[in-house]
Amino acid sequence: MSEATWRDHIALGAAADKGLHHVRVGEKYFGVSRLMYDLLSGLSSQNVPVDEAATLRHLQQTLSYGQSQKVYAQLQGFVAGASPSRSLWQSFLRGLIKFPLWRPSAAWTARFQGRILTPARVALSVLLGLASLGVAVVKSPALPPITAVGLGEVLTLWVLIIATTLVHELGHAMVAAHYGVRPRSVGVAIFFLQPAGYADVSDTWLYDRRVRFATALGGFMFQIYPLALASALWYATSNPLLGHYCLINLGYFVINLIPFVRTDGYWLLSNALGENNLMNKGTFTLRTLLRDPGQLGRMGAGDLSFALFGLASSLYVTGLYAYSLGFLWQLVPWRGNVPVLGVMVGLLLIGLIVREALRRRRVPRAQGVV
Ligand SMILES: [Zn+2]
């Protein structure tokens, strides 16, 4: 860490919202006053090293000694972030464990700025989407059921869908770039025990809500391209494999729109509501209620909605893991010899024990916003 400078950890937003300027320090996004914005901007642009003495020296040009120490402690906390085991557990709960493969450059971002969401391209996506839907309506009655396909075809479909998630994620990255937001990384991930692509476009938090909303839709815009190609081929050849691919691709639109995990539907909803911490508030309110059910009578409609959202989310996450385990189970040749329920309960118990162990090790950290 000694060679690192604040430039590696600070990202400054272009937008100001209710007098607060958007910034990122480490993995945390928040709004700060103009004074703090200028301080962070100075730390970043002057390449101040992350070490204590250099940072305090810089901060004390503006702040008192006591304030400087407080700010330094908070910044240091944001940069240190959560412990690796806790981060992994959080990723598991979110259903997404990421393996970055590529960090797009500033030049890559600049190349697509203002060039992706052109009216012609958006109109083309909508038309292709509607045409694909039409093909699905016309052709699916004659399509043999998915249970009739062999293991080889199931694996082919699986690979095609994984490739589709990569195209979808590229859509998020490209639409972010359209607004001048550089994607932090693109790669593969384990999404509810299944391989998938991912694009980290979280720096859209440095911009306004409209940018995040459009970026969340960008995945669909690109996912339509392989869908339209496969639909045209399905229409022309009536090949059942293509038919199943098209229906699964369309199914992913629907699943992606369910807002109870952090998929596109969640981001669309939270940005439409202007509620940035929907998931955290939901989980927190639900936990409060579980610890002290007596609170139920005292809760207002707002908190009650958060608790309901938290409950729906917890059930959905559990359901997705169960479904995914069930799918993988189908592929295990010796599954007849092991009791399914026993394995699932076993995995659940191991998960709970690991979680409890992590919770005990967790050191309480100071809370506060710079
Ligand atoms: Zn997406």
Describe the structure in your own words.
The protein has about 375 residues and is mostly helical. It folds into 3 domains: about 80 residues; about 190 residues, no CATH class; about 80 residues, no CATH class. It is about 60% helix and about 10% strand. The chain contains 13 helices and 6 strands. The chain has a 3-stranded antiparallel β-sheet with strand order 1-2-3. A 3-stranded antiparallel β-sheet has the order 4-5-6. A hairpin with a 2-residue loop joins β2 and β3. α11 crosses α12. The radius of gyration is 24 Å and the shape is globular. The two termini are about 20 Å apart.
Widest beta sheet: strand line-up: 1-2-3
Radius of gyration: 24 Å
Largest sheet: 3 strands, antiparallel
Portion in strands: 5-15%
The rounded distance between the terminal residues' Cα atoms is 22 Å
Give the structural class.
mainly alpha
Question: How do you describe this structure in short?
Answer:
By secondary structure, this protein is mainly α. 61% of the residues lie in helices and 11% in strands. It is globular and about 75 Å long.
Q: What attributes characterize this protein structure?
A:
three-stranded antiparallel sheet, binds zinc ion, 370 residues, mainly alpha, 11% strand, disordered C terminus
